[in-house]
From TrEMBL:
Main localization (coarse): nucleus
Protein's name in the database: WD repeat domain 82
Cell compartment(s), UniProt: Nucleus
SUPFAM superfamilies found in the cross-reference section: WD40 repeat-like
One CC-aspect GO term: Set1C/COMPASS complex
MF GO annotations: chromatin binding
Amino acid sequence: MKLTDNVLRSFRVAKVFRENSDKINCFDFSPNGETVISSSDDDSIVLYDCQEGKPKRTLYSKKYGVDLIRYTHAANTVVYSSNKIDDTIRYLSLHDNKYIRYFPGHTKRVVALSMSPVDDTFISGSLDKTIRLWDLRSPNCQGLMHLQGKPVCSFDPEGLIFAAGVNSEMVKLYDLRSFDKGPFATFKMQYDRTCEWTGLKFSNDGKLILISTNGGFIRLIDAFKGAVLHTFGGYNNSKAVTLEASFTPDSQFIMIGSEDGKIHVWNGESGMKVAVLDGKHTGPITCLQFNPKFMTFASACSNMFWNCLHLPDCVPVPAYFPCLTFIYSIPL
C-alpha cells in the first residue's frame, strides 16, 4: 500500500501498552521493522514484537539508567546513553543482557545519538558542547569536535556524511572520511530566541533535513542547498517540551506529536497539513516514529495516567502509567 493523504487520515490506534512506571524517553524500530525497543526513566528497556503486537521482554539498567536507545545493525544489540552516575554510552547484548563495550568520554548528558546506516560507526552529541565519533569495535573515541553550543546530529541515509546542528542557528555538513578538516557546507538559519533545536533527521532519500524544536514549529530544509522549504506549525507545545518529529519511510510526509496528544501530519512537498490523528494520549507525545517496513507507526507520551488503587481504610494511591501506542492503517 502506498502512503497518500487519504491513507494517512485512515490511521487508527490498534494497541496501547502501559508497561512503564515513568516517562518513555525514547524508542527505536529495528531495521527490519519486526521489533521496537523503548527506554524509560524507570530504568527499563522493553522489547515489543511489531507483528504480534505485544511486549516480548523487559530488561533493566537500574544502576546507570537508560536514554536515547538505538539499534545497531545486529537485531539483538543496542547502544544507549546513561542518565545516572555518568555520561558513558553503553553497548548492550539483548540476547544475554550483558554489556559488550563502554564508550566513556562525554562529561555532560548525551542529547543526540545516531547509528550509521551502513557500518559500525555512530556519533553522539552532548551538553558538554562536543560531538564524538565512535566505532562499536573500540571503546576509544575515533573523532572529537568542539562546538560553541548544544549540538544535535545525525547520519545521512548512505552513511557518507553527517549533519550537526549548532547553537540552534546553523547546520554543518561533514564528510565522514575527512571530518577533521571541518564542514564542507554550512547552512545558517534565522535564529529564534523563543526556542532551541532538539533534533535533526535526514529523509530516507537523503534530500531533506528535518529540524525539530521545543517551540511550536519544525523546519524542513533542502539537504544540498540549506534552503528552508517549509516551516510547519499549528500544533500545541506551550510548555517547550521536546517533541520528536519524523519522516515517513517514503520521505513524503512529516509527523510530530503535540502536548494535547494529537499527531499532526504534513505533506513535505506541498507543505499542507493532511491529517490530525488522535493518538489516544492525554499528554505530550514525546516520541514518534514510523515503522521502516510495515504500515504502522508508534507514539509514546510522558503524561502520567492516574489510576487510583482503593485500599481498605486508606486514601487512593496513585499509580503512574505512561503509554506507548501502536497505530496502524485501516485499508480503504
